[in-house]
Each structure stands twice: as C-alpha cells, then as structure tokens.
Write a sequence for this structure.
C-alpha cells in the first residue's frame, strides 16, 4: 500500500479505504469511448505527433467526415492537413500514393470500401507492389481506411466485405478492429507503419461505446499489427472472428456458457499478416474450430484459416472438421428480413458450434 | 470556310472571357489552400440592381442567343515552333541562343538514343532481351524537355495522379522542384488522366503534364482516340495553362518546358504541354505497324521531318558539326552502347535469396521460413542449379 506515490496517475481515491477516510467517494466509472471517438483520437494524436501525416478524402474536412469520424480535425489542423477532395477515388487514392512516395504519410479515407473498387488499381498496383518492384528503393507509407462490410439497409453495392480481397495481396497489411481499443491502437500502428496498410472499420460499430483501459488513453498506445487477441478464454471450442462478428461470438459464448460449453473467442484484429500461432495454439487446446465472418464464403477469411490449420501442427488436434460461418453467398439484399438473414447472427454461430461439438 | 472562321471567333471570344475569369479567380495573396478563410468559395457581391449572374459554379456573362460552342478541330490550337523543317530559326527572338556545347549535347543525346534503340531492337530479335520499345522520331520530345529540368525534379513515366500527389508533397515542402509526368495521347483517354488534371488544378500543384502525341496508340490512330482538338484543348477545361508545340523541334520543346517549369514552381500551378510528333517505329517488339499504316507515311516522317535531321541542319549551318564528326560519333556511340550491353550481359543475376525480400519493409515470418528452406535446399542440391550465373 505504501507503494502508492504521487507519480501514480490513478487518483488516490482508489485506495482511499486504507489511507484516508473520504465520504461519498466511489471509484471513477470506467472511461467509455465509442469506436468513432477512438479512431478520431488515434488520428488526432498521430497528426499532432508527425506533421507529415495528413488526411484526405471526401467530406473529411468541414463536414467532419461522412460518418463524423474526423470530427474536429479540420478545425484543429486546417486545410493543409485535412483535405476535401473531388469525387474521384481513383484520383485521390493515386494522389495519396504519389504523396507517400514523395515522403508524406497520407491517410486516405474511402467513404466506404465499396468505393475503393474505383481505386483498387492504385491500392494494389501503385501502393502494395511498389516496394517489391523497386527492389526496396521506394516505400509507400500510406493508410487506406474507411467502413467495410454490411451496414443496415444500404443494399448490394454498399455492403460488401473486402477483407478477403485485400488480404489476398502481398505487399499490403490489412487490419480489422472490433472495439474501441482495437480501433485506436490499430489506426496508430497503421499510421506509424512504413508499409501500405488497409484499415477495415465498421459503420455499425462507430457508435458503440466500450470500456477504454487506462493504457489505451496514452498517446503511445499501439496495438501491434499481426497479433490476435483472445477476448474470452475457453476449453471446448475455438471461435475465430474479426470486426463486428466478434461481438456476436461473445454473445453466443455467453449463451453457451450457461449450457456448460466454454468457448474460446479469438479477435483476429489483423487479417494480413494473420496470427496463426494464436489460432493454432488455441485449436491444439480445444480440438474444435469455428470461424465467423461477415464476408462471402468462397475464398474468404475462414477458408484461409481452415487451409492453414490443415497445413500446420493443429490439424492433428482437430476432433471434427472446422466449420465456417459466413455471410450468405448472394449480393446483399435490400429487404430487411432478407438482409438480417444474410449476415451471421448469434443463433447461426451457436448452431455451428453445437454442430461441430456434436451436441 | 465561313463556318470555320465563325467558329474560331466564338471559341476565341469564350477563351478570352475564360481567361479574364481565370484572372478574377486568382485573388492576389491567395496561397492556394493555405489561406484560412471562413468560406471556401469566393465571396459573392450581391446587388439586386445588377442583372449579373450570381451562380457559384461559373464566372461568365449572360447571353441571349442560343449558340453551341463549336469544338475547333479544323483550326485547332496553333503549334509553337522555333525551327523550320530545314533547321532554320524562324523568329530570332525565340532562339534560345544556347551555347555550342549544350546544343551538341542535345544532338549527341538524341543520336546516342537512336543508336541504342537500333542495337537493343536487334538484340530482342536475337533473343538476347525479352522486350523493347524504340523512340524513333520522338527523340526531340525526350531530350528537349529533359534538358529544361533541374537535377532534383521528379520524372514520372506514367501514373498521372501519383505524379500530382508527389507535386503536392513538393509544394508542401517548399522544395523548389517540379514534377513532370509523361504520357501518350492514348493514355490521356484514361479516367485517371481526367482525375490527375482536375486534382492538379484544384490542389494547385507544381506539375507539368507532358503529352507526346505521336499519332498512334499501338494501332489506334488519333482519329479513333478522340474527337476534340487533341489533348492541349482539354487543359483549359480544367483551368490549366496549356500549349501545343512541335515535338520534332527540340528548341520549341526546350523553350516551352523551361518556361512551364519556371512558372509552375513560382506560381504553384499545373501546365499542360502537348508535343506533336510521329512514331516512326513500331509500338514495341511485339508489334508490326505495317499492318495498319502505309510505308509511305512512315517514310515521309523519317525523311522530311525528323528531330535529329532538323537539329543536324541547325548545327551544320552554324559550322558546329560536319560529316567527319558525324562518322566518328556514329562509330563511337555504337561502341559505347555495345560495350555497355556486353558488360550488362556478363553481370551475374541477383542472389536467389532476394526473391523474398522487399515485399514489406520487414520480412514476414512465412517468407523468412521459405527463404531459409531454399537456402537449405541449395546447400544440399546446389550442384544441380546454374548457381554460377547468380551473385554469391
């Protein structure tokens, strides 16, 4: 107890019972931060830290961002650091790549990743491949970020998940945060990384608040790219997921826990390079695997995980074939009842887990 | 005839109005996007008594006559030149008066390039290299423009918008550099050329867009590539200062690029130079252009309007060059190219472990494992591989 000193940030209130008598003092409510604010904080801190960092995209400046993720940044940093562009993804992605080649560190925002298809030549051919093609001479320290995957009622052309598309390409790093801690730590790591990084956010998660641990409040808090996180320990089955479905997996795990099934839920955090060590270690412990993703099944993230499990040591520990839970193999329908049933729901995850465990 | 003249008049009128508008838009003291101004758009002086247009989207007068602007393809943007086809200076005030050594450097660069083209084209036919594209007929555009740049300027051979991004970065850094982006009249049809032009203008970047209009995009002639007045006519549509030059006149190319460079850096704005020229050779070693154009057409350009010939006439008329030097230089340049080629052929190939590096700045573990696996494999079975051709 005497170790508490003036250097400790946490208020003395937390150990008040022993040291001082204080009335009507409760421990401070844990800090709640939405995913949107976490990304905003991360960008703000990196803009402040390095003047070569700048943000460009549609509506990012005066409008505060189409989803308000860049709120307040233009007011603070001005026209030189927060730039509104004409409506040409191909155009501003190319400009961002050129700026990165010439020594700046751009954050290129796509209003959604569906529009990144307009610019995909710039992302893959100009950004991802250039370091290799130049024999290590020309780096492209760029971040492409924006909301990815299904939203609500925006139909087929605005609901696609690009994790598998970008995860396919050597030269790119691809991250997919779930909660606020992921979002802040990964955007900061992405901005500091000298390789091109794709940050796949999720529009439906922007407004969701999460408890923000004290480490995450530091300006140097980073979540390492390429490292998954075990969100929930378990012994009976490994459930691997990324982005919003991680929350659904935790809900499914809570339901199954009451039935005596303990799920180990892994939040991938990074799509490429994939943290297979964590997944393999978990499968070797639980002997069962279910993957959960919002994207389409063919050539998807789950397909890659299953293939790699087969190629590695964990295969011999499987007691049953791995099962993938994915989005339905159709363009996202517009009718609400169809859309709801086209993305993995908690009941689908529970069903897949029970099927794998044969219960 | 009357239609054409009428069209020119209308076009010129709107061009003058457009230029006046451009001057109005460029407020003194505005450093592009760096001014802090509460309103992004120009201020409107609202006065209900005046019947002037108030639209934010254009600065122009009203007109009460229905008239479509005629695209001017019969009498297009004039072509700036300094020398005639016989290498004689037309307007002495446009002569750059370059010193002898510099003009000789132009000539030697163009002819060395020509020699290298011949040798490398042949070597592809012999199977010694896999692919080649020649520069026949376009040597003036390359050498004239490159000579007008500084050593620190950035050159993009393609990637139009990346060039604009680099120019934006150069402006941010106050680097006193220009970015020049070369492309053909075919590539100008790409959507990203539109984006590049528009962004260069709106972001006010120090960039020169240099279009080599050589008449063909592989087999597609310009008559099928566009219906407007070439590429130079597109520049003003984006608010970009534009010029069309005789690409086979190395002094015209030099003068235009030099002035564009000076102003692009001083004023932070883009320039568009369309260099008219002719592709004498095939598009590449995979092409046989006799399939889509006549030998007579090619011969005309080779014999009557070649950038190297025109500069040679200029040099001869000044007594700076003669047949003896021509013979000697031909021999010397050929020897230079052959020696460099043979030296390159003798060089060993890069070490196989470089297959795995530079995908990312740091090598990921899967690639490192593969690299180590290859190294082990070569340790055991190396004798079955032609390792002597590779760097140790």
């Amino acid at each position: 107890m005497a170790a508490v000193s003036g250097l400790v940030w946490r208020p003395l209130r937390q150990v008040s019972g022993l040291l001082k008598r204080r009335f009507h003092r409760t421990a401070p409510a844990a800090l709640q931060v939405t995913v949107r604010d976490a990304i905003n904080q991360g960008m703000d801190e990196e803009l402040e830290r390095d003047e070569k960092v700048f943000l460009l995209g549609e509506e990012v400046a005066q409008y505060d961002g189409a989803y308000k993720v860049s709120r307040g940044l233009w007011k603070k940093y001005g026209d030189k650091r927060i730039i509104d562009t004409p409506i040409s993804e191909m155009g501003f992605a190319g400009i961002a790549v050129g700026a990165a080649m010439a020594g700046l560190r751009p954050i290129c925002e796509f209003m959604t990743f569906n529009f990144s298809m307009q610019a995909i030549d710039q992302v893959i051919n100009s950004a991802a491949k250039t370091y290799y093609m130049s024999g290590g001479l020309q780096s492209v320290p760029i971040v492409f970020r924006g909301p990815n995957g299904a939203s609500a009622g925006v139909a087929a052309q605005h609901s696609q998940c690009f994790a598998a598309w970008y995860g396919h390409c050597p030269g790119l790093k691809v991250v997919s945060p779930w909660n606020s801690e992921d979002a802040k730590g990964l955007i900061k790591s992405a901005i500091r990384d000298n390789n091109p990084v794709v940050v796949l956010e999720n529009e439906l998660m922007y407004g969701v608040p999460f408890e923000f641990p004290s480490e995450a409040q530091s300006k140097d808090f980073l979540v390492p790219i390429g490292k998954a996180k075990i969100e929930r320990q378990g012994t009976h089955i490994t459930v691997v997921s990324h982005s919003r479905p991680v929350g659904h997996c935790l809900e499914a795990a809570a339901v199954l826990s009451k039935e005596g099934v303990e799920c180990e839920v892994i939040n991938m955090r990074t799509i490429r390079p994939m943290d297979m060590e964590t997944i393999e270690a978990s499968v070797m412990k639980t002997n069962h695997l279910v993957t959960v993703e919002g994207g389409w099944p063919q050539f998807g993230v789950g397909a890659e995980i299953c293939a790699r499990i087969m190629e590695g040591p964990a295969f011999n520990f499987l007691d049953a074939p791995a099962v993938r839970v994915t989005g339905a193999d159709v363009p996202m329908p517009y009718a609400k009842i169809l859309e709801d049933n086209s993305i993995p729901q908690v009941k689908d995850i529970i069903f897949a887990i029970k099927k794998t465990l044969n219960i | 005839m009357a239609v054409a003249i009428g069209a020119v008049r209308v076009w010129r009128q709107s061009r003058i109005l457009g230029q006046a508008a451009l001057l109005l838009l460029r407020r003194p003291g505005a450093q592009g996007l760096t001014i802090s101004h509460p309103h992004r758009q120009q201020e409107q002086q609202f006065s209900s008594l005046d019947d002037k247009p108030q639209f934010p989207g254009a600065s122009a007068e009203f007109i009460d006559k229905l008239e479509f602007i005629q695209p001017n393809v019969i009498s297009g943007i004039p072509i700036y030149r300094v020398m005639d086809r016989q290498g004689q200076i037309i307007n002495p005030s446009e002569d750059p008066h370059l010193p002898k050594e510099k003009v000789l450097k132009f000539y030697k660069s163009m002819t060395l390039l020509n020699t290298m083209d011949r040798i490398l084209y042949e070597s592809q036919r012999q199977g010694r290299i896999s692919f080649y594209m020649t520069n026949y007929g376009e040597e003036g555009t390359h050498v004239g423009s490159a000579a007008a740049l500084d050593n620190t300027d950035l050159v993009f051979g393609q990637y139009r918008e990346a060039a604009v991004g680099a120019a934006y970065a150069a402006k941010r850094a106050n680097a006193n550099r220009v970015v020049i982006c070369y492309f053909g009249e075919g590539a100008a049809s790409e959507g990203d050329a539109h984006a590049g032009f528009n962004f260069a203008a709106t972001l006010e970047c120090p960039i020169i867009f240099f279009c080599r209009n050589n008449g063909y995009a592989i087999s597609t002639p310009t008559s099928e590539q566009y219906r407007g007045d070439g590429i130079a006519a597109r520049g003003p549509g984006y608010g970009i200062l534009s010029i069309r030059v005789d690409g086979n006149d190395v002094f015209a190319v030099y003068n235009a690029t030099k002035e564009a460079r000076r102003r692009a850096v001083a004023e932070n704005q883009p320039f568009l130079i369309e260099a008219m020229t002719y592709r004498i050779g095939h598009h590449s070693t995979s092409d046989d252009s006799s399939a889509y154009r006549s030998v007579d057409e090619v011969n005309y350009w080779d014999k009557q309007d070649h950038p190297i010939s025109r500069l040679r006439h200029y040099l001869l008329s000044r007594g700076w060059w003669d047949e003896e030097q021509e013979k000697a230089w031909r021999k010397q340049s050929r020897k230079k190219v052959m020696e460099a080629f043979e030296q390159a052929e003798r060089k060993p190939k890069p070490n196989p472990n470089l297959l795995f590096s530079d995908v990312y700045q740091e090598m990921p573990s899967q690639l490192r494992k593969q690299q180590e696996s290859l190294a082990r494999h070569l340790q055991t079975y190396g004798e079955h591989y032609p390792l002597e051709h590779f760097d140790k």
The CA atoms of residues 294 and 300 of chain B lie 10 Å apart. The longest strand of chain B covers residues 207-213.
